[in-house]
Amino acid sequence: MSALLSLISGVVFGAGLALSGMADPTRVTGFLDITGAFDPTLAFVMGGAVSVMAIAWRVQRHMNAPIAAKKFDLPKTMLIDRRLILGASIFGIGWGIAGLCPGPALAGLVIVPDKAIIFVLAMLTGMGLYRFIDARFAEK
Q: How many domains does the chain have?
């Protein structure tokens, strides 16, 4: 049942990205181009997402467990350290250069696979490289 709910959630999320045009890298780069052809659409999408999550966090506080799981899986720490800042910076730079992040890239595999495949392969390579390097440093 959990896998089915995850699949449905992913399909709804991907459909939302596709229908809103947020899987289009030119929307993201247009949003970041504040001195040129600025496109504020992404700001409205972010505002909508923040609004929904603000409500969700308030509702979650009054729940003992999520609807589709035995317990909440929330972060154990609020630590802002060098790894977090470095990771967020790499993510932001990649997002700005490519105009894609993981969700829209995966949706892009369906919409424009010839363009998205390069990003997805690079993303998977980076994830694998991180796991390899992280495991090496964790051993010492």
A: 1
Q: Please tell me the pTM assigned to this model.
A: 0.69
Of 123, 114, 93, 108, nearest to 23 by C-alpha is 108
pLDDT digits (tens, 9 = 90+) for 14-55: 888 888 888 888 888 888 888 888 989 888 888 998 999 999
Cα separation of 115 and 77, whole Å? 37
Report whether 58 contacts 68 (CB < 8 A): no
Instruction: Please provide residue 104's backbone torsions phi and psi, each rounded to the nearest 5 degrees.
Output: -60, -30
For residue 64, the surrounding DSSP H or E stretch is none
Instruction: For residue 61, give its domain range.
Output: 2-139
Residues 6+ apart with CB under 8 A from 94: 101
